Structures
1.
Amino acid sequence: MSWGTKIFMLYGGFVALIAFLVVSSMRQNVDLVAEDYYQQELQYQNRIDQTDAAIKSGFSPAIVVNDSQVNIVFPDTVRSLGISGEVVFYRPDNKALDYAEQITLDNSGKMSIARSKFSAGMYQTKVMWKSAGQDYYYESTIHIK
């Protein structure tokens, strides 16, 4: 085999590798973090203030994952004031797996969601609620197995 043939084969292999990488990258599913990310960025300071308010007042909920349910438990002090809001389970790798539900507490101050509504993987839990005229926000990461 001559040098010219070897150089041509090396160059052809390189071109084939680059073409393969381009085609495989174009087939990759890329979801935006959020469709309205610019609006969310403008309101980011409000989220920081709401998170600080939840932490300083001790109103942050506990998020517990067990074999059959995902439980969100609010402290007694918050329950007595009344709560309205929403819980969003955000899946960073696939927005089709996101899940949102309005906050509805049982008599013990717990909100239970069946684990069957979730796929295995990591979720960012975003709890947004209003209590006694004050807005609060809490964010946590959970892993569903």
Note: The first helix runs from residue 3 to 26.
2.
Amino acid sequence: MLVRLLYASRAAGEIDDALVASILEDSRKHNLERGITGILCTYSPGNVFLQVLEGGRETVNALYAAIVRDPRHREVTILDYAEIAERRFAGWRMGSVNLNRVNQAIILRFSERATLDPFAMSGRALFALLDELVSSGAIACRDGS
């Protein structure tokens, strides 16, 4: 059974290129064998991670439990969790997007303010934002390339 989990967290420290590269390298190395796909978004105001994980229920749940224990994350919060018929991000072992580089008008389209606060948004609004980013080509590194 496939599931999709959307969560947000705050980084324990500053989000920099080295931290994001480390997370993406680990994800891309292990996700194919685990059957995990998804995307990782970062947003510096508030040091926010926003991530979608897709795959088998047990595998996604185990990965999420590891993320909760990961000292790089704090305030880990599930924003949406659902059984799914098909993957939305099937082409990404772990795509990435730096939301600091996204036009604020796109964020404002789905949020109360032009500053992203996923903790104050619905999962539905966040998925609409992510769909917009996919269609606009803002998500980088399709399937790790």
Note: Residues 2-144 form a domain with the Alpha-Beta Plaits fold (CATH 3.30.70.100).
3.
Amino acid sequence: MRLIFVTFVSIMLSSGVSAKNTDAFVEANLLSILYHELGHAIIDIVGLPVFGQEEDAADVASILLINDLFDEQAATQIAYDAAFGFLGEASAKGNEEEAWWDVHGPDLQRFYTLVCLFAGADIDGRDDIAEELGLPQDRLETCEEEYALAADSWGPVFDELAENAPARTLKYVGGTKTLTEQVISAEVGALNEDFALPSKLIIRVEACGEPNAFYDPQSREIVVCSEFEGWLRALPLED
């Protein structure tokens, strides 16, 4: 279990809800994004059936990994910052019409799902988080069941991958100078202690010409674009 962020940034939650484009915010969102793409990779490599949108399944995997891999304080801060990331994305679109045709869910819906599942993992201990982040009571009432269903689906998969760990089935390709490179390279090392995939998975940081991250099933690679860091720092966040 990670006790603190890999860059050793530790933030105490303050009274009131706010977000700033700090290194910790960037790191939390990079981890959330990496776990989302890892969800896609696991679905492909293990050959998991997906009932519904695969993007939704990858979002759920990301939330569960945040909850499972970190201690309470770090997991809570990452969940807050990842949630604010979705709010920032929604705000950045302004009056732009929602792309209802897209395979990803709307940013606000992804925000509420993240909050719901994270709160549902400890409904008594985290109901204040749901309240602070504005999750309606009607949704909160279903969150414990939603988390249980998600854990029943992904949990056995994660447990099976953990049986033969530690292993070196994940390989990092990239530098170690930028924050993005440091976060991703360190997390690849940590994930090799947690999971052993049935085949090799490359995780690389490189310039893509756009702020993006994706899993390529042909080469079995996760690519985290170096442009993501600057984009995250520029997201409009509420003080």
Note: Confidence is low (pLDDT under 50) at residues 3-16.
